[in-house]
Design goal:
By secondary structure, this protein is α/β, with parallel strands linked by helices. Helix content is 36%, strand content 17%. It is globular, with a radius of gyration of 22 Å.
Length: 315
C-alpha cells in the first residue's frame, strides 16, 4: 500500500479532546471508507455510540481528511471536532492509542510505527472478505511485518477468520521451508460480526407505514416472506450466491410460502449482472427475484424495512 502524505489543513480543537471513552485514530481513505454500505459504516457507528470527545484521522491527502470531517459532521449531533494526526506525531496517539484501518493492509502502518516506537499505539485492521488478491497478499505480509501482541486483525465471521488463518499458516510454512525458523502473526485475531442499528427498525407507526409502503411498491404481500441481501455482488470476491438460491428454493417448495429475494446492491459490469439473473432463474425458479440499485441512498435506507430476514454474503 503506497502512502503519500501532503500538507493537511487542520480542523483545530479549541483544546485537546478528553473523555473517559476509548478513542482511536482512523486511517481514512475515501475511496474505501466512503463506499456505500447498506448497513452503515463503522465510522458512523463510532461517531454515534463511542462517546468520544473528538475524532482523530490520518489520511493519504487533504481531500481524504476533508471528506472524513464532512462524514463525521453528518453523523455527529454534538458538533465535536476533528484532528489530523501526522505520521510522525507521537503526541497525536496519546489520547487515541489505536490506529484503525478499514482493510487488511496494516503491514505498512506497522513498519511506519517502528520508527516512532512499537509501544506508541496499536494497529488494528478489519477484513471484509477474502475474495481479492490484494487482501490475501496483505494477510501474508503480516508474517514479516513488525506486529506486536497489542495489534489485531478483525474478521466478520468465524468462517472467514479460519480461512484467513489457514492462508497465513500456509505462507508461514513456506517461509519456514525457505528460510528456516518459525513464523506467525504476532498480534491477535477477533471475530466481530457486522452490526445493524436495530433501533432504526423498532416497531413504530412510522416504521410499519414505511414497511407497508415499500412492500406494496415491490409487490410483496403481507403474508409473503422477504429475504434481503446487499452489497457489491461479485461472486469472485464475496460468497457465491448459488447456496442461498438453493436454500430459498427448498424453503419455498417445502412451506408453500411465496418467497422474495430482494438483492439491493450493484454489479461491476453487465456480464456479472447477467450471471446473477440467470443463476436465480435456474436454481430458484420458485423465488421471486428483485434487483435494486443499493447505491441509491433512498433505496439503501428504505429497503431494509421491507425484509423479514437478512442474508449476509461474505467470503
Amino acid at each position: 500500500m503506497a502512502i503519500h502524505i501532503k500538507p493537511i489543513k487542520q480542523h483545530k480543537f479549541s483544546k485537546s479532546p478528553q473523555s473517559t471513552a476509548e478513542n482511536a485514530v482512523h486511517f481514512y481513505r475515501r475511496e474505501i471508507d466512503a463506499r456505500p454500505r447498506p448497513a452503515g459504516s463503522f465510522l458512523g457507528a463510532f461517531v454515534k455510540h463511542s462517546g468520544a470527545a473528538g475524532f482523530y484521522c490520518q489520511s493519504h491527502d487533504p481531500e481524504d481528511f476533508d471528506d472524513f470531517v464532512s462524514r463525521v459532521a453528518k453523523a455527529d449531533t454534538e458538533s465535536r471536532e476533528c484532528r489530523y494526526v501526522a505520521p510522525g506525531d507521537r503526541k497525536g496517539f496519546l489520547e487515541a492509542p489505536v490506529l484503525r484501518l478499514s482493510g487488511a493492509e496494516i503491514a505498512p502502518l506497522m513498519w511506519r510505527r517502528r520508527t516512532l516506537g512499537q509501544r506508541q499505539y496499536s494497529v488494528v485492521g478489519e477484513v471484509e472478505h477474502l475474495g481479492s488478491a490484494a487482501t490475501q497478499g496483505a494477510l501474508c505480509d503480516l508474517l514479516i511485518a513488525p506486529a506486536q501482541p497489542w495489534d489485531a486483525m478483525i474478521y466478520p465471521s468465524k468462517t472467514i477468520k479460519q480461512a484467513a488463518e489457514r492462508l497465513i499458516q500456509t505462507q508461514a510454512d513456506y517461509l519456514g521451508q525457505r528460510m528456516g525458523g518459525t513464523h506467525g502473526f504476532g498480534g491477535v485475531s477477533y471475530v466481530v460480526p457486522p452490526g445493524i442499528n436495530s433501533q432504526t427498525f423498532a416497531d413504530t407507526d412510522d416504521t410499519r407505514s414505511l414497511r407497508e409502503g415499500v412492500r406494496r411498491r415491490l409487490g410483496i404481500r403481507d403474508d409473503d416472506f422477504c429475504v434481503l441481501t446487499t452489497g457489491n455482488f461479485a461472486f469472485y470476491q464475496r460468497a457465491h450466491p448459488t447456496p442461498l438460491y438453493l436454500a430459498l428454493e427448498s424453503a419455498a417448495r417445502r412451506t408453500g410460502v411465496r418467497i422474495h429475494l430482494l438483492q439491493a446492491g450493484w454489479f461491476d459490469n453487465e456480464k456479472i449482472e447477467r450471471a446473477y439473473r440467470d443463476a436465480i432463474k435456474e436454481f430458484a425458479p420458485a423465488v421471486n427475484a428483485i434487483f435494486l440499485d443499493g447505491r441509491e441512498s433512498d433505496i439503501r435506507d428504505r429497503v431494509w424495512f421491507a425484509a423479514d430476514a437478512y442474508a449476509a454474503c461474505a467470503s
